[in-house]
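Sharing a chain and its predicted structure for anyone who wants a worked example. Both blocks are below, sequence first, tokens second.
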Amino acid sequence: MKKNNGSRQESCWMLQTKRADFGTLAKRFHISPVTARIIRNRGIVGEEAVEKYLHGTLRDLYNPHLLKGMDQAVGILEDKIKSGKRIRVVGDYDIDGVCSTYLLYRGISRCRGLVDYQIPERIRDGYGINENIIRKAAADGIDTIVTCDNGIAALDQIALAKELGLTVVVTDHHEVVRGADGSEQLPCADAVVNPKQDGCSYPFKSICGGVVAYKLVQVLFERFGIPETEWEQMLEFAAIAAVGDVMPLQDENRILVRRGLRQIACTKSAGLRALVEACDLDITQLTAYHIGFVIGPCLNASGRLQTAKLALEMLLCEDETQAQEMAVQLKELNEERKNMTQKGVEEALSLVEEQYENDSVLVVYLPDCHESLAGIIAGRVREAWNRPSFVLTRSAEEADSQDGEETVLMAKGSGRSIEAYHMYQGLCGVQDLLVKFGGHPMAAGFSLREADIEEFRRRLNEQADLKPEDFVRKIWIDVPMPLEYISEGLIEELKQLEPFGQGNEKPQFAQKNLLIRSSRVLGRNRNAVKLSLVTEQGYSMEGMLFTEGDRFMEELGSQKHIDVIYYPDVNEYNGNRTLQIVVREYKLHP
């Protein structure tokens, strides 16, 4: 399983084989059979589901009253607002937490509530609500705390809040804490809104904290008689949260994101407009990619390197000049974060190469790395090796030793997983080593004593039931489609399937045995290759491959044929439009 940093990862190409009457679907929805097949490959079954997928509107969103605890939570907030009680929203420092806080703060303010907000500092406070935040709220005369994107696992902290006489409403989307017997352990809040709690009849569980908050604002506005159009005008923040928190772009998430991306063009947030401009993006042409890889990282950067309040204050800012200044600051922070991340990735990959290449579960300790970057670096390690990956950094926290005479060094970690490994369950198997932990099947965060890292590594690997085939990256092909079939009409039609992302991946087509007539490296950084390709029937088309150009040319050598997985595109240059393919994966052969 050795994998050099410079080599391409082993992969297995798989063809989707889901069945349906593609011809009938194509006629019914005025699409090509190719597009009908792709929709079926995304798990969409039945005409009603296809209609919702292609043409869903906000009327197709699920009733927020189906969320268990929603009416109770809104009833509490209505009483507190009307009686003039002070309310504090407590969010989180990532993009979902920032957007959730924005939505609740704006929503409660619109109902004339006395509301402010608090976002934990990543290094000082750690994830979610903590004892200091609760005591500060009590000292400040706060009557009610509303959490968003956190709180479901804060059993002790919320118990403290109740002891201090605070009213607490929890809104969250993370996994519920379970006892050893699997029983649900909810915080003792006055109301809990979370689609993952037992007995919740909400039809779609995979919504983020921002969407839960957006739904709460919808019901709150109903209670206060505020026009629904005002709720709809906040849609873009639910969409940004869903993409930024890597929620599946399925069901109502797809509708929210699709509509939200369009609405950003007319957002009332001067800060969001300023950030889009600072990133040199066209606000009328934003995609989920732009949110996930350009806008989102900038919003996250303040919470990683400084305070997430900067991102929230920018979104709330109504002064265009100030908003522009804050947007530039966020962009600069993100550039700093990218440089720090690259250094950490290089160090982590070297350690894996030198010491852990035979481990099924990769555990890398980078003591001097900024702890906010651990999750990003873990994701890059996972991508490079296709194995569950944990990256740990030395924590600013210290724990008292049992004899009370010395302090114990602590480490914080983040993990990113593969489909074959349930990361949260993996941590449950070593929870006696952990001071605290939480997460999902694909990602997790935790802290432990520095002295326990090696034992943590050993036991995770000992308990992991992973086979060599689990480490081979599977690449799914939607349709094996000859280049001759590509047309501008098909490319335009495929746009109906957007937004692409987690759970609604960009379609992938394949063709074998293309002749490489010529190839040349392009770009200032020589990170693109232009290929002139010819099919066995003599049809020619250009292809673009974005990779390290010189390394590809070295790999190509004297080989003349290539199998490709691709996406069709139109190249526009000097007023001319030509068809081309963007090569996403390839296999060379003589």
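Comments welcome. The CA atoms of residues 387 and 471 lie 6 Å apart.
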